[in-house]
């Protein structure tokens, strides 16, 4: 199969759509823009599925090993014959899995937005931004060059910024978009330095070559990067950790997670697409892309493991205390991405030990479906209730039957109840961490319980708790275009777990044989069931037990409600420490030394010119006299003095 | 034919040149300044002719140059008088000291 022929339209169609809608949408295509965007997305999805299907089932495998195929590669900026920034597309199991996820979720969000964003003044602009995002995300997952991925990485950041700040006349949305941009940009700075370190020692920017060189213990590049060290840590660990900082920023890992909850200010379908299913898992994808290199450096993997585990755990605790429906989902996203991260961290390269890698990407795959379903469901609810707060909801199950069932399925899936999608992926993550690190396994198990608890707290608070109030009964489920994606995603959330993922996506491309161990599964299932039971006891009817529970935890509960004061610490560090110790002195030097020098030059020039211009009398004869004296002077000089 | 030495002729042309130069710097009337410029040009003409005759009698370049200079002087006089007339229309005066608006 000629991959180039199929992958170029996948990339260029959304870009063309962005240009079309962005330039002409607002004026000429006001209502048609949604249909145009959705239609182009449908085409992209169909092609993506075809290409991925072909790769996985027809010509991806040689001797049972999935190959890395470079579909096309255009040299763009060549620094030297060996080092260049290329624009290419890599075809391998993870990129194929990702283009399916990205285009499919994007399509669902496009359809959903037809109803959700209807009547919005900047409807066309919204679809233009969605297309831009889809283009950048597809470009990111297909990148064959580490600098190319960086370019698209920044592009998704920019489109995320545009979409979070979509309601630009709302101050909180503007603040949130700036926060998201600055925090991720700050993390990307680490990513850039990481790229420079890796490419300096690796001598290339190309992913395949880089991985090949840095994983061969006898290659010169490997010896150079492992023997060079800074602060007692080898440059390989530095490079990988710095790249991971970039990934952690995009994937909202502790302590760079502060932008994600605020990013919920954007339109809800956007949250479903960018801040749940696709962009925030870019960090996981990045680590997976460089996984062979990570796998030979245990210290870098330790960093990944612990950052992931801590994020998963903290986010789960905070999610139990939040009352804003989208914020609960945001923290839940952060927690699930933490899951994927530590699954990568406990994994090793190849064979049985590579189970964590497969599990992580499997979880990424299933999570995309049920989390975007949760967000879209939340969108329907918010659309109907006109509030984000759990206090304003309750008893909605009869008013919106479709949403209710979809939300329930998604909750069961994320909690990990068999046979829904989340169960299979979570099970593999637990197995992988059980075999490598018992502490991580404990944290994972506890987090799984918390996940089930907060998801069902959400579910019962929204759909049960109160009896239906004065809300009108019709159209509670939203328009048809809002129902269709919910139903499709619901089916996916049920069925995604049965995809033979271990046969398709593995760290070394060789299919992995896994077997379900009923006894092993028993523990997490029991914990999850208990958590659901507790949530039902506390939130199904209003009985004050939730408040009592909160009171038992006292200060800990309060700290969790305040998100463990991470935002306040950031504010303290930036406002008090950085502003006072660095910002103000820098401003003083700027004003009193640098500006003073520049101003001095300007003043001196000005006064000299005022002085000189007095000589310009305007009298022609004076000029002629000067001219003649000059000539006479020169004549004397040349005749008598120039010997 | 009694010959006049070259130095005499050069003396005349130098006197003419400095007379013109003096007029150029001291007169205020534009027409007079123009006449002074003509004097300077003519002193140069005399030099050309004299050197041609005394040093290279078989050649004609000096005389040709003189004819060129007379032609250009005529053109220059036409332009200068046009300027003077225009100046008179705007300033009601042909005194150079009255036209100093464009000093800076």
TrEMBL record, chain A:
One Pfam family matching this protein: Proton_antipo_N
Q: How does it sit in the membrane?
A: Multi-pass membrane protein
Q: Say if the entry is tagged with keyword Transmembrane.
A: yes
Q: Where is the NADH:quinone oxidoreductase/Mrp antiporter transmembrane domain?
A: 143-451
Domain (NADH-Ubiquinone oxidoreductase (complex I) chain 5 N-terminal): residue spans on this chain: 76-127
Instruction: Print the keywords alphabetically.
Output: Membrane, Transmembrane, Transmembrane helix
**InterPro entries listed in its UniProt record:** NADHpl_OxRdtase_5_subgr, ND/Mrp_TM, NU5C-like, Proton_antipo_N
Keyword Plastid set for record: no
> Which compartments does it reside in?
Endomembrane system; Membrane
Q: What is this protein called?
A: NADH-quinone oxidoreductase subunit L
Look up and give the organism this protein is from: Pinibacter soli
Annotated gene? nuoL
TrEMBL record, chain B:
* Molecular-function annotations in GO: NADH dehydrogenase (quinone) (non-electrogenic) activity
Residues crossing the lipid bilayer are 6-25, 32-51, 63-88
Q: Which reaction does it catalyse?
A: a quinone + NADH + 5 H(+)(in) = a quinol + NAD(+) + 4 H(+)(out)
In short, the EC number is 7.1.1.-
Class of the enzyme per the UniProt entry, highest EC level: translocase
Membrane disposition: Multi-pass membrane protein
Q: Where in the cell is it found?
A: Cell membrane; Membrane
Name the domain of life: Bacteria
Keywords assigned by UniProt, alphabetized? Cell membrane, Membrane, NAD, Oxidoreductase, Quinone, Translocase, Transmembrane, Transmembrane helix, Transport
Query: Is Phosphoprotein given among the entry's keywords?
Result: no
Main subcellular localization, coarse class?
membrane
Q: What residue ranges carry the coiled-coil annotation? A: none
Q: Which InterPro entries match?
A: NADH_UbQ_OxRdtase_chain4L/K, NUOK/Mnh_C1-like
Pfam families (UniProt xref): Oxidored_q2
- Specify whether Phosphoprotein is a keyword of the entry: no
This chain's function reads: NDH-1 shuttles electrons from NADH, via FMN and iron-sulfur (Fe-S) centers, to quinones in the respiratory chain. The immediate electron acceptor for the enzyme in this species is believed to be a menaquinone. Couples the redox reaction to proton translocation (for every two electrons transferred, four hydrogen ions are translocated across the cytoplasmic membrane), and thus conserves the redox energy in a proton gradient.
**Family, per the entry?**
Belongs to the complex I subunit 4L family.
Q: What PANTHER family does the record tag this protein with? A: NADH-UBIQUINONE OXIDOREDUCTASE CHAIN 4L (PTHR11434:SF16), NADH-UBIQUINONE OXIDOREDUCTASE SUBUNIT ND4L (PTHR11434)
Protein name, UniProt field: NADH-quinone oxidoreductase subunit K
Species of provenance:
Pinibacter soli
Its encoding gene is what?
Answer: nuoK
């Amino acid at each position: 199969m000629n991959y180039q022929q199929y992958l170029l339209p996948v990339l260029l169609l959304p870009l063309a759509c962005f240009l079309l809608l962005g330039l002409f949408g607002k004026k000429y295509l006001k209502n048609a823009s949604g249909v145009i965007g959705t239609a182009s997305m449908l085409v992209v999805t169909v092609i993506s599925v075809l290409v991925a299907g072909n790769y996985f089932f027809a010509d991806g495998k040689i001797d049972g090993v999935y190959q890395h195929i470079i579909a096309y590669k255009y040299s763009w900026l060549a620094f030297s014959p060996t080092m260049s920034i290329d624009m290419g597309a890599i075809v391998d199991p993870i990129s194929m899995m990702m283009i399916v996820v990205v285009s499919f979720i994007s399509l669902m969000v496009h359809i959903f937005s037809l109803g959700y964003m209807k009547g919005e003044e900047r409807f066309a602009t919204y679809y233009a931004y969605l297309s831009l995002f889809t283009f950048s995300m597809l470009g990111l997952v297909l990148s064959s060059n580490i600098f190319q991925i960086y370019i698209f990485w920044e592009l998704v950041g920019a489109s995320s910024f545009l979409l979070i700040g979509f309601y630009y006349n709302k101050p909180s949305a503007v603040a949130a978009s700036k926060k998201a941009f600055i925090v991720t940009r700050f993390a990307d700075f680490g990513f850039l330095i990481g790229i420079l370190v890796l490419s300096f020692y690796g001598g290339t920017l190309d992913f395949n070559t880089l991985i090949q060189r840095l994983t061969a213990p006898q290659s010169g590049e490997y010896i150079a990067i492992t023997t060079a060290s800074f602060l007692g840590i080898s440059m390989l660990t530095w490079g990988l950790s710095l790249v991971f900082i970039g990934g952690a920023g995009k994937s909202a890992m502790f302590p760079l997670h502060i932008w994600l909850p605020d990013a919920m200010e954007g339109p809800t379908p956007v949250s479903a697409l960018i801040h749940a299913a696709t962009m925030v898992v870019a960090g996981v994808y990045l680590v997976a892309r460089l996984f062979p290199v990570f796998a030979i450096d245990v210290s870098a993997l330790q960093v990944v493991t612990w950052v992931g585990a801590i994020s998963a755990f903290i986010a789960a605790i905070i999610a139990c205390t939040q009352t804003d429906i989208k914020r609960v989902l945001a923290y839940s996203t952060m927690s699930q991405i933490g899951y994927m991260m530590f699954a990568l961290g406990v994994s090793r390269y190849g064979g049985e030990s590579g189970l964590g890698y497969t599990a992580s990407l499997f979880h990424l795959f299933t999570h995309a479906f049920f989390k975007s379903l949760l967000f879209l469901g939340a969108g329907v609810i918010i659309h109907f209730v006109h509030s984000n707060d759990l206090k304003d909801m309750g008893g909605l199950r009869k008013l919106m039957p479709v949403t209710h069932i979809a939300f329930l399925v998604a909750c069961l899936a994320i909690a990990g109840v068999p046979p829904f999608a989340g169960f299979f992926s979570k099970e593999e993550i637990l197995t992988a961490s059980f075999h490598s690190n018992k502490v991580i396994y404990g944290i994972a198990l506890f987090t799984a319980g918390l996940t089930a608890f907060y998801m069902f707290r959400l579910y019962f608070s929204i759909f049960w708790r109160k009896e239906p109030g004065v809300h009108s009964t019709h159209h509670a489920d939203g328009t048809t275009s809002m129902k269709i994606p919910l139903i499709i995603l619901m089916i996916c959330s049920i069925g995604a777990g049965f995809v033979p993922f271990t046969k398709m996506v593995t760290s070394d491309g060789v299919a992995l044989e896994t077997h379900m161990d009923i006894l092993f599964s028993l523990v997490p299932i029991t914990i999850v069931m208990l958590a659901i039971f507790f949530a039902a006891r506390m939130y199904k009817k209003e009985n004050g037990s939730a408040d009592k529970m909160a009171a038992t935890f006292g200060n800990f509960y309060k700290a969790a409600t305040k998100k463990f004061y991470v935002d306040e610490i950031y504010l303290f560090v930036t406002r008090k420490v950085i502003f006072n110790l660095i910002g103000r002195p820098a401003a003083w030097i700027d004003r009193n030394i640098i500006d003073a020098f520049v101003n001095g030059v300007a003043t001196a020039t000005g006064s000299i010119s005022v002085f000189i211009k007095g000589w310009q009398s305007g009298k022609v004869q004076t000029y002629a006299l000067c001219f003649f004296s000059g000539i006479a002077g020169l004549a004397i000089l040349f005749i008598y003095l120039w010997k | 034919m009694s010959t006049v030495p070259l130095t005499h002729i050069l003396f005349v042309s130098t006197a003419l040149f400095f007379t013109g130069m003096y007029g150029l710097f001291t007169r205020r009337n534009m027409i007079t300044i123009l006449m002074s410029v003509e004097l300077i040009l003519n002193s140069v003409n005399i030099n050309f002719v004299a050197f041609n005759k005394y040093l290279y009698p078989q050649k004609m370049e000096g005389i040709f140059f003189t004819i060129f200079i007379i032609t250009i002087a005529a053109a220059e006089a036409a332009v200068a008088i046009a300027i003077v007339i225009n100046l008179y229309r705007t300033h009601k005066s042909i005194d150079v000291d009255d036209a100093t608006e464009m000093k800076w």
